[in-house]
Amino acid sequence: MSAPTSAAAQEFVPCGQTALKNAIARANATPGPSLLVLSFGCQYTLTTPHNDSNGLPVITSQISLIGNGSTIRRSTQTGTPEFRIFEVSGPGGDLRLGGLTVRNGRASTAFGGGVWVHGGGQLSVDRSKIIHNYASEGGGGVASESSTVTVSNSDLMHNVSRGDGAGYLDYLQSVTTFRNSTVSGNTSLAGQGGGIEVDGRLTVSDSRVLDNSAGGDGGGINIAPDATADLTNTVVRGNTSAAIGGGINNFGTLQVTGGEIFANRVTEGLFDSRQGGGIANRGGSVTLSNTRVTNNAALNAPGGSTTR
After folding, report:
1. pLDDT digits (tens, 9 = 90+) for 259-305
2. Cα(282)–Cα(293) distance, rounded to whole angstroms?
3. Cα–Cα distance for residue pair 243/273, rounded to 1 Å
4. Which of 13, 98, 138, 282 could bridge 1 with an S-S bond, Cβ 3.0-4.6 Å?
5. Mapping DSSP to helix (H, G, I), strand (E, B) and coil, where does residue 285 land?
6. Of residues 238, 170, 235, the one with CA closest to residue 205
7. Taking a C-beta distance cutoff of 8 angstroms, is the pair 148, 119 a contact?
8. 22 Cβ partners below 8 Å, 6+ apart?
9. What is the pLDDT of residue 8?
10. pLDDT tens digits, residue range 280-290?
11. How far apart are CA 281 and CA 186, in angstroms?
């Protein structure tokens, strides 16, 4: 996790939802960056929202959470209200997560079940897991609007959305970087980009996009018009689309260097689609360099890659 930009106010947070909420509120009110050290291995279980949509106070300043293997999760008890875990509001909001699991957030009528960052905010995730979250509009794990997101050495897994980008959604010109991370087992029930949906600029290196599924285009990654994606030494494997582009669906600019696009599938779709088990290029630009595209399948040929 990147260090705070200047000397940070530090606070140890006892194991409990009230202690965590109060610590974040104090950090927001403290000038300059804050460092919150969570209890080793604690389950911070949120049973009530702090406000209508979020389990915790909205992040409006630079706050680093040192997780120490702890988990922040919405309770699974019957009757628990539905709410996401974190909202980061820019331009001042800057949330830095390290060694932490974010679990079971539910944004039932909005974006970002685990984390929603917007308005020029910043999110850094390192050595962490964002898992089993849900958002109806998109971004079951993380949703970003016009913000900067960096994910390093982390997992976005088993998140669900009805809309686009079940694992990660950039829905308005964000700058996103994944390094040595895994986006796996996420499901967009009726949207595009089961793993990742990108509208801005995406850079992925030494990472894995595995076993995601989309009811629409782009089982692994969906790249919108005017968006750019640069993948280096990255594996896109085992993803499924019910429309077109099992591994990657591209309307924008895609550069792939090294890595492999392997064993992705298109399983359904209209008769004139159902193509591009590995890559579907839909009027965009695709450049491959030393990249293996193998063992992909689609209901209609070609199964490996297609340009339309």
Report:
1. 999 999 998 654 445 678 999 999 999 999 999 999 999 865 554 45
2. 18
3. 7
4. 98
5. strand
6. 235
7. no
8. none
9. 83
10. 999 999 999 99
11. 22
Return the CA Rg of the chain. 19
Q: Which two tokens stand for residue 59?
A: 């992040």
Q: Are 152 and 174 in contact (CB under 8 A)?
A: no
- Rounded CA separation 14/92 (Å): 26
Judge whether 206 and 233 are in contact, CB under 8 Å. Answer: yes
Q: Are 221 and 236 in contact (CB under 8 A)?
A: yes
> Which residues on neighbouring strands pair with residue 164, listed in sequence order?
138
Q: Which residues contact 117 (CB under 8 A, 6 or more apart)?
A: 87, 88, 90, 93, 95, 123, 142, 143, 144, 145, 147, 149
Residue type, 128: S
Average pLDDT over residues 190-195: 97
d(CA 275, CA 30) in angstroms, rounded, equals: 54
Return the SS3 of 31. Answer: coil
Any residues with CB less than 8 A from the CB of 24 and at least 6 apart, and which? 36, 56, 57, 59, 63
Count Cα neighbours of 71 within 13 Å in the Cβ-side half-sphere. Answer: 12
Enter the tokens of residue 220. Answer: 């692994």
State the maximum Cα–Cα separation within the chain, in Å, rounded to a whole number: 60
> Is 3 strand, coil or helix?
coil
- Of the candidates 178, 177, 169, the residue with the CA atom closest to the CA atom of residue 145: 169
Q: Cα separation of 15 and 72, whole Å?
A: 10
